[in-house]
Design brief:
Chain lengths: ~240, ~240
DNA sequence: CAGTGGTCTAGACCACAGC
DNA sequence: CTGTGGTCTAGACCACTGG
């Protein structure tokens, strides 16, 4: 074996996981304290703390002062997936990325959009529509609303070359948001842009992005039929 | 203000995030070393390390020995969502949960299933089909394949009362897996069970679960039309 | 080789929650 | 009050990697 040795706290975490998997420590039971486990494994308390904290962060253990550490009764498994640039998402499949700006306009935002972004009714926002393609075939339709006043530089951005998706990700380093996934029927205009039949089932993603507690942008991504979103489930990331 | 003080490493993380958001530290640039930052903030190196590691885990920073720490150029935002029991997922909407076992049989697994689980071609698995409902209306169709030999006790489990979903989650404490989301057209038999029209767009989730590197179960969940999957995007959780 | 982050230690004090 | 986990310190050594 030429495998390098994992750090101590990781080895300890694996051993603790094994005890849980093998039901030596059953869900709901209290396990020994940090000090006791540190002594058992012959490590400093900080090292044992690291292993236990990782498992607690993953939802496998629940820790409370005075009470101790218990194995979670009904662990909620976490699914995680990355949200790369659409360009990278496409290029990673080995295809050639293409991009076409359909329209850019300043309009009164629909109620649903202004509510999602937490801005006044009938606010004036920038709407951008574009199609991203893979090897020339339509991949996803991007329909975006941007609160341009809250995004310095956006008004001057040339979106015919760099997509709004890419520009925003590069210019808003840190943000939070919410994503909603639905299966919808392609409307006729969407079907035409995606080169599919009206009524085809299409994966639709709606993302709202916030920065410092205020809404910045909402985007609706309609993927061409057959698109799959893959995500890992697990304890480790 | 009666707000309790956050731990030091969290305050430091927020300040580092602020510098990134405000573009004092631009994407791609190298930031000061742990030792320098620890001195600047007047804390031990371990405390600064904790703050930096959290940001690196979130993908905001990239750290490499010798090279130092840089602000990630194109951060891949992470979306996370919990996978609760279907029963809890339904009850959290305020609806009354219902469950009906449709069939349970031992069969030769289709090729797609045995491949996904990494088991021999034409292996014998247990197939379970069930409908979960909310306030009496069909909510999701569960079509599951279980490698019963690898799940002690499953053969004796009574799935007419507790769903396979619930039984497995309670009896397999730790597992990993993969999830694939697609938008599909409801087949006629599915539409009948979900009380919708054939051809309706339905969110379809395929989950493969592994334990100790061997496949345990695959499930296909077909949600009734209109179902939305909501997920948080962010840097922290 | 040297400089950086990754890990570990031994010890300390604090925060919380049950008694 | 006591016992638990949460945080922090000062210091040490190791692992990786560019020069």
């Amino acid at each position: 074996m030429s495998r390098r040795e994992a750090p101590g706290w990781q080895q300890i975490r694996e051993e603790l996981l094994r005890r849980i998997r093998d039901r030596e420590w059953r869900p709901g039971t209290i396990i020994p304290t940090e000090v006791e486990l540190a002594k058992e494994f012959g490590v400093a308390r900080a090292t044992m703390h690291r292993a236990l904290r990782e498992l607690a962060d993953a939802g496998t253990l629940e820790r409370r002062r005075r009470l101790g550490t218990r194995v979670t009764m009904h662990p909620v498994r976490q699914a995680r997936f990355g949200i790369p640039l659409l360009r990278r998402e496409i290029e990673e499949t080995g295809a050639v990325y293409g991009y076409r700006l359909l329209s850019r306009a300043v309009k009164v935002a629909p109620t649903a959009v202004s509510e999602a972004l937490g801005i006044p009714y009938r606010a004036i926002l920038t709407q951008v529509r574009a199609v991203h393609s893979a090897d020339g075939r339509p991949y996803v339709l991007e329909e975006r609303w941007v609160h341009a006043r809250r995004v310095p530089g956006f008004a001057a951005a040339d979106l015919s070359v760099v997509s709004a998706n890419e520009w925003l990700l590069a210019n808003i380093p840190v943000s939070t948001g919410e994503m909603t996934l639905t299966a919808e029927r392609a409307r006729a205009d969407v079907a035409r842009l995606l080169d599919c039949q009206a009524g085809d089932p299409v994966m639709t993603v709606r993302r709202v992005t916030w920065r410092d507690g205020v809404g910045i942008t909402q985007v609706r991504l309609v993927y061409a039929p057959g698109h799959a979103i893959v995500s890992a489930i697990g304890v480790d990331p």
